[in-house]
Design goal:
- This protein has 477 residues and is mainly α.
- It has a single domain, classed as Amino acid/polyamine transporter I (Up-down Bundle), CATH 1.20.1740.10.
- The protein is 73% helix and 0% strand.
- Helix 1 packs across helix 18, helix 5 packs antiparallel against helix 12 and helix 8 packs antiparallel against helix 16.
- It starts with a helix and ends with a helix.
- It comes from Diacronema lutheri.
- It is found in: Cell inner membrane.
Length: 477
C-alpha cells in the first residue's frame, strides 16, 4: 500500500505539472468554436452519422424528431464502443476487496452518475452550439463561452490531466503486455528477454505510429480489428469463468465501506463523454434521440461490466478459500484467470491488449486534435501535425518507463479527480448557469429532468468523490 500511495503522489505531481503547461497553451474557446475541427479523421467522428442539415437552429416546438432510428442506433453504438475499454481490466481488482454485491451497486450508481452527466454534456454543448451558430462546439469551448476564459483555462488543465493520466496508464499496461509476450517468445527461443522499456516503446511505436501515420481508412481497420478481438476474448473469458462461479463467491465478502474506494474506477470505466459532442451534432440536438442514444449506449457496457465482474469475483477467491480476496495488484484477478492455462491463457492477454489498444488509440487521436487546435496548426501541415503527435506520445511514454506500475494509480487519479470534475461537476455547473440565463436560443427542454435538484445531485456526487479522494490521499481517512 505504501508503494501504491507513493506512485499516486508521484503520478499526480507529474500530471499536474504537464497539465499546467498544457493550460498555458490552451486556445481561446470563444474564438475557436466556429472553426471546423481538425479532428475529422478521429474514430469518433468517422463513426458517428453525419448530420443532413445545419443543426444549430432549434426545431419548432412540437415538431417531429428529425433523427432516424439508424442514426440513434449508430450513436448508441459509438457510445458503447467508446465506453468498453481498458477500464474493464482494473474493475475486478478494484472491486475484489468489497465483493460482488457492493461492487455491483457501485457500478449501477456510477452508471447513473455518468449517464446523467453525459446528458448534461449534450445539453450544454447543444446550447453553446446554438448560441454560436456552430455545430462544432465541444465541452471546453462551451465552458469558456458560459463561464469565461479563466474557467476555460482551468477546464483545459483538467482535460490535459485526464488525457495524460489515461494515456500513461494505457502505455504502461500495453507495454507490460508486449513485454510479457516478448519474454515468452524469447524463453521459447532460448534467448534472453529484452529489457522492460522495450515493451512500452514497441506499444507506442505500433499504435502511436498507426495514429500518426495512418489515414482514416487504416485507423478504421485497426480499430475494427481491436474491437473484434476485444469482444471475442471477452466472450471467451466470460464462458471460461462462468462454470467456476459460486453463490459464496458472489455473496462474500460484502464490505460496503470499501465500495467507496472502488467507486472512482467504476466511474472511469463508464466514461464516454469525449464523444458526446459528436453524438449531439449527429442527432442535431434532438432531445429524445440524444436520451435514447446516451442511456441505451451506456447501458450496454454496464451489463457487460456486471457480467464480467461477477464472473471473475464469483469464482474462487484470489487469496484462497477463506476470507476476502488478497489482491496484490489491480490485475491480480485477471492474471489468476489467465493462469488456468489453455484457452484462458491466450484469451487474457488478448483481452488486455485489445482493451488497452482501443482506449489508447481513441484518446491518442483525441488529444492530438486538442493540441493541434491549441497550436493553431494549419490543416495539411504534416510536419506540424507529426510534431504534435510527438508531444502527445512522448510524456506518457516517459511516465510509463519511469513508473512501470502506473496503470492502477493513473486510473485512480483520473477517475477520482479528472473524470469526476471534468465530466460531472463541470457539466452540472454549466447547465445550472445556462438554465439561469435568459437564452432564447437555448434548448426548449433540459436533457436531464429533475430541475436544480438533479443538477445538485450530479454535482454533489462528483464533488464527494473528489473530496473523499483528496482526504484519502492526505491520509485523513
Amino acid at each position: 500500500m505504501e508503494r501504491l500511495g507513493s506512485l499516486h503522489f508521484r503520478l499526480a505531481a507529474c500530471v499536474l505539472a504537464c497539465a499546467a503547461v498544457g493550460a498555458r497553451g490552451a486556445p481561446n474557446a470563444r474564438a475557436a468554436a466556429p472553426r471546423t475541427p481538425l479532428a475529422r479523421r478521429t474514430l469518433a467522428r468517422a463513426t458517428a452519422p453525419q448530420p443532413a442539415d445545419d443543426w444549430p437552429e432549434p426545431r419548432a416546438a412540437g415538431a417531429p424528431a428529425r433523427a432516424t432510428a439508424r442514426e440513434i442506433a449508430s450513436s448508441a453504438a459509438l457510445i458503447a464502443g467508446t465506453t468498453v475499454g481498458a477500464g474493464a481490466l482494473a474493475l475486478p481488482g478494484a472491486t475484489a476487496p468489497c465483493g460482488f454485491v457492493p461492487s455491483a451497486a457501485a457500478l449501477v450508481v456510477g452508471w447513473a452518475l455518468m449517464a446523467s452527466s453525459g446528458l448534461l454534456v449534450a445539453e450544454v454543448t447543444a446550447a453553446a452550439a446554438r448560441e454560436t451558430s456552430s455545430p462544432g462546439v465541444g465541452l471546453l469551448a462551451a465552458t469558456e463561452l458560459t463561464l469565461g476564459s479563466r474557467a476555460g483555462a482551468v477546464a483545459g488543465a483538467g482535460s490535459a490531466l485526464v488525457q495524460l493520466a489515461l494515456l500513461s496508464a494505457y502505455t504502461a499496461q500495453g507495454g507490460d503486455d508486449v513485454s510479457r509476450a516478448l519474454a515468452a517468445a524469447a524463453g521459447a527461443a532460448g534467448v534472453a528477454a529484452p529489457p522492460p522499456f522495450v515493451g512500452p516503446f514497441a506499444f507506442t511505436a505500433a499504435l502511436g505510429g498507426c495514429a500518426a501515420l495512418g489515414n482514416g481508412r487504416v485507423l478504421g481497420v485497426v480499430n475494427a480489428l481491436l474491437v473484434g478481438a476485444l469482444l471475442a476474448s471477452f466472450a471467451a473469458l466470460l464462458a471460461l469463468a462462468a462454470p467456476a462461479v459460486s453463490a459464496r463467491g458472489l455473496l462474500e465478502p460484502r464490505d460496503w465501506g470499501r465500495a467507496v474506494d472502488a467507486f472512482p474506477i467504476c466511474v472511469l470505466a463508464l466514461v464516454f463523454h469525449n464523444v458526446v459532442p459528436a453524438v449531439t451534432r449527429a442527432l442535431r440536438g434532438e432531445a429524445s434521440a440524444i436520451r435514447l442514444a446516451v442511456l441505451g449506449g451506456s447501458a450496454v457496457p454496464l451489463v457487460m461490466f456486471l457480467l464480467w465482474d461477477g464472473a471473475v469475483l464469483g469464482a474462487a477467491p484470489i487469496g484462497g478459500a477463506d476470507g476476502p480476496p488478497a489482491v496484490v495488484d489491480a490485475l491480480a484477478p485477471l492474471r489468476a484467470l489467465g493462469e488456468r492455462g489453455g484457452l484462458a491463457g491466450s484469451a487474457v492477454p488478448a483481452f488486455s491488449i485489445a482493451a488497452v489498444g482501443t482506449s489508447y488509440l481513441g484518446f491518442c487521436i483525441g488529444q492530438h486534435d486538442v493540441l493541434v487546435d491549441a497550436m493553431r496548426v494549419t490543416r495539411g501541415d504534416r510536419a506540424a501535425e507529426l510534431g504534435a503527435y510527438a508531444l502527445v506520445l512522448g510524456p506518457p511514454l516517459a511516465l510509463a518507463c519511469a513508473l512501470p506500475g502506473v496503470f492502477a494509480p493513473a486510473l485512480d487519479v483520473a477517475g477520482t479527480f479528472g473524470v469526476s470534475t471534468l465530466y460531472a461537476l463541470l457539466p452540472a455547473a454549466l447547465a445550472w448557469t445556462q438554465r439561469s440565463r435568459s437564452q432564447p436560443r437555448a434548448p426548449s427542454e433540459p436533457l436531464l429532468p429533475g430541475g436544480r435538484g438533479a443538477l445538485l445531485a450530479v454535482g454533489g456526487a462528483a464533488l464527494a468523490v473528489v473530496v473523499e479522494g483528496a482526504l484519502d490521499q492526505a491520509g485523513l481517512l
